[in-house]
Amino acid sequence: ILEAALLAAGEPLSDERLLGLFNETERPAREQLRDVFQALAEARFKSVTRPLPTVTLDELLRAFSDALARAAMYTHHHIQREPLSVRERMSQILSRIQADHFTEFQALFPHEEGRRGVVVTFLALLELIKESLIELVQHDLYGTIHIRSASTST
């Protein structure tokens, strides 16, 4: 209510004018009003740091399962298959991601290659993680997994 009153007024409000916005039963005491203003002022300049959740193996496997499910939607008949190389896919992934920009986990899976392409990409990602060449970040629990190059990570 206080924030709405401040926004509606567009100007600083005196205690009397602000208290006049409340009816008799809702009117806070002047001390409560000062406490609220002090808390608002402190909260305005306080930066909230929240540690990022770690990506668990279960979440990584769930994202992999989702990629497999999407790849199944793009299955079609292949007359001739090209051999897929994990090392080559590692190079492709490293060329697509950047150290200063996050790439969505799902964006790295070539669904048009079908299940084999998804598996080779997942193995390449695991290999890159093992070699500490990439890092995974997840901002929210069960949220989207993002990947970036670990070359400038702190």
Describe the structure.
The chain is mainly α. Helix content is 48%, strand content 8%. The chain is built from 6 helices and 3 strands. Strands 1-3-2 form a 3-stranded antiparallel sheet, with helices on one face. Helix 4 runs antiparallel to helix 6. The model has no long low-confidence stretch (mean pLDDT 78).
Task: Write a short abstract of this structure.
The chain is 48% helix and 8% strand.
Defining key terms:
154 residues; mainly alpha; three-stranded antiparallel sheet; 6 helices; elongated
Annotation, overall tally of beta strands:
3
Estimated radius of gyration = 26 Å
N-to-C order of helices and strands: HHHHHEHEE
Distance separating the two termini: 42 Å
On the 0 to 100 scale, the average pLDDT is 78
Low-confidence stretches: none
The proportion of strand residues reads: 5-15%
Helix amount, in percent? 40-55%
- Biggest sheet statistics: 3 strands, antiparallel
Instruction: Please state the overall shape, judged from the principal axes of the Cα atoms.
Output: elongated
Q: Treating each run of at least 4 consecutive H or I residues as one helix, how many helices?
A: 6
Strand order of the largest sheet: 1-3-2
Helix/strand/pairing category: mainly alpha
